[in-house]
Amino acid sequence: MSVDEDRLMAFADGELSGAERAEVEAALAQDASFREKLVAHRRLRAQLSAAFDGALDEPAPTRLMEAAQPPAAEVVKLSDRRAARWSVREWGAMAASLMFGLFVGVGVMGNDAPLIDAGETGLVARGALASALDTQLASEQAGAVRIGLSFRAQDGRYCRTFNLTEGATAGLACREADTWNVTMTTVSPGGGEVRMAGAPPEVLAAVETIIDGEPLDASGEAAARDAHWRR
Amino acid sequence: MKMTSAADQTRSDIVAMLPRLRRFARALTGQTADADDIVQIAVERALTRMDQYQAGTRLDSWLFSIVRNAWIDEARSRARRGKVFAPAELGEQVGNDGEAEMHAKLEADDVWVAMRRLPDEQREAVALVCVEGLAYREAAVTLGVPIGTLTSRLARGREALQVMLGGAA
Fold it and tell me: ipTM of this complex > 0.85?
């Protein structure tokens, strides 16, 4: 797909403003096939609306209204019926213990070397996690660690989100001199074996608070890695 | 757990979001019954994780990502159990409607079928941007992918849908 078509799609989705928008408008004025493509984008949107917007007018079923009530209502949770899992509270407690260092040194997953360890200024990545953060790209097949987003923080550091493939730990690490400081971790109930490379919302929320601009794309990520994540 | 008024507010915001969550889940799963199961699981998860929702950030993105993860979990666990998804309800409600109405329903059915045929990654992108109207950046954050990845999935998904739906007016 050409750059022009990407632009046109962004225009159709209301993503453009200013000069970019004017550029597409000028192209539309001149090029009938471009206009046809815009019409096709709009038609598809209309078809999707027609197919799915019905949900907005239907009253939500009782079971969904009940699910949104306070826990005191003691409705039987669908997720409980399906699988006995640790509750979020237990996972949360484990994550909190991890953050307070109780599990530090034992190793996050109980494998050989710990992946997260106490450093001088907080938690730092070790072993397979450290080397994945150093060298692994988001597109690469995961070993023990999956890399999610890489980006520059507002203070200039490079940061990367990661998921540990065993267990359900995800987190955010930022490059500090020669180490990766693990700034937060989270454990998602039932998410470990199924979670894709995407970071869970808690991690993304942390990313949002420190990111400068957009995450790195694949080439930006590779370039930053090749430069050893130096600022 | 102590319920703060902020938590109560979030809870009622979630209730207000139910219609959009159902719409998103339908676009994602291609099935109305599956969609409501997924929304129920997602609402339950959201309520147990409310402490992780940061007031002032977008509640819709947060909930959409929980719905999407719930669907990934469900799809994977069904695949492990070797179960197939519920069959399509194609043409089920066609009955005694007028011709125009019937035509509209058939067209909508075509859209559901076409959406089901898209690869998951493209369907998610289309559902968030074209059905839910999220901006690219919000959709990218919801899916946990860089914005360039989002736009290329969106472009491919759209192209495939246009081909499948024949582009006929």
Answer: no
